[in-house]
Every structure is written in structure tokens, then in C-alpha cells.
Amino acid sequence: MPASPVVQRLARYAKEEQDEILGGGDDPFGVAYAGLTWRPKEEHFGVRAGGRLVAHAGLVRLPLSVGGVDTEAVGVGGVAVAPGMRGQGLARLVVGAALDHARTLGPPYGLLFCRPALVPLYERLGWREVGEEVRVEQPEGTAVMPLRTLWTPLGEGVAWPGGAVRLRSNPM
Questions:
Q1: What's the CA gap between 45 and 31, in Å, rounded?
Q2: What is the pLDDT of residues 31-67, one digit of tens each?
Q3: DSSP, residue by residue, 92-152
Q4: What global pTM score does this model have?
Q5: For residue 28, how many other CB atoms are within 10 A of its CB?
């Protein structure tokens, strides 16, 4: 890997690119047990090493309500680092670049869902856990999000509001 990897905005990110990073498989993110329908990301950021895509983070604007007040967040999802490249700061790099872009979009919060084992990684990157149950839209109605929900401010002085959280779309 080059001494200073560079994050690129990706014009395309589909299953082929995901497989390039993670090697394929039916459940590359380990979240199939949740049984959820996921929303695709709209903007993608990646890192290449030796011509190969080795890291990714995607973004999508999300409608939500917190404490009964409608707001928006920028959802961060599809974060992936190739197994042989982990521990080199690529998650920090690609998520950081995605958040830099998210700060230009207007919503006050970044939001992500992850397995419990990944919470310490995201906390080191400045994310904080949402203390409330989070409900998300699904084809059959709303469901409680079984993964951990974390948020990060996208502006100065932004605090997470209290109250029930409802993502008014499929999760990302």
C-alpha cells in the first residue's frame, strides 16, 4: 500500500466492488441474522491499493424523527476494509472522507448501525451510541433495529436530542 493512501469518490459501487474488498459471500457484513431490508447508499468513497479497491464507505440522506421532531441525518453504511488491509487506518480514512462530504449536505447528524463488536472502533472515530431504541421502516411495517445505533455531530455544537428514534426509511 502507498505510504499515503488517497480516498476517491467512486462513480460506481455495486456487488462486484464489494466483493473486490470483502471477497464475496452471502453475509459479508455479518448482519443477515437481523432479517432487515437495507437501503442502498447514494454516494461512495473508496481507497485503492495496487489497483485494487481495499476500503469503502457509503452515504445516504435519511429522514428520521427523534422525540417526535422530524429531522434528517446522513447515514453511513457499507463500511468495509479488505481483510488483509485491516489495522492500517483505512476505516478512519474512508469514514473520515465520507463525513467530510456529509458535513456539506446540511443534516446535523451522522448515523450508522453496526454489530456490537464494532462499537469500540467507531467510538475511537468519535461516534457515540444512541441511548434509545431505534425503529426502522421495513416492507412489512416498522421493526426495532437489532444492531447498535451510533451518531456523530456534523456541525459545531450539535447534540443528539432525547426521545424515541424512528428512521422513516429502510436502514442503510
A1: 21
A2: 999 999 999 999 999 999 988 999 999 999 999 999 9
A3: HHHHHHHHHHHTTS--SEEEEEE-GGGHHHHHHTT-EE--S-EEEEETTEEEE--SEEEEE
A4: 0.93
A5: 16
What band does 132 get if pLDDT is binned at 50, 70 and 90? very high
Length of the chain: 172
What is the rounded distance in angstroms from the CA atom of residue 104 to the CA atom of residue 102? 5
Q: Which three cell numbers stand for residue 133?
A: 431504541
Rounded CA gap, 54 and 24, in Å? 13
Q: Which residue has the cell 476505516?
A: 91
Give the pLDDT confidence of 89-100 residue by residue, as tens digits: 999 999 999 999
CA atoms of 57 and 97, how far apart (whole Å): 9
Cβ neighbours of 167 (radius 10 Å): 24
Q: 142, 108 in Cβ contact below 8 A?
A: no
CA distances from 137 to 110, 163, 171 (A): 18, 18, 7
Cell numbers for 37: 431490508
**CB of 155 closer than 8 Å to CB of 147:** no
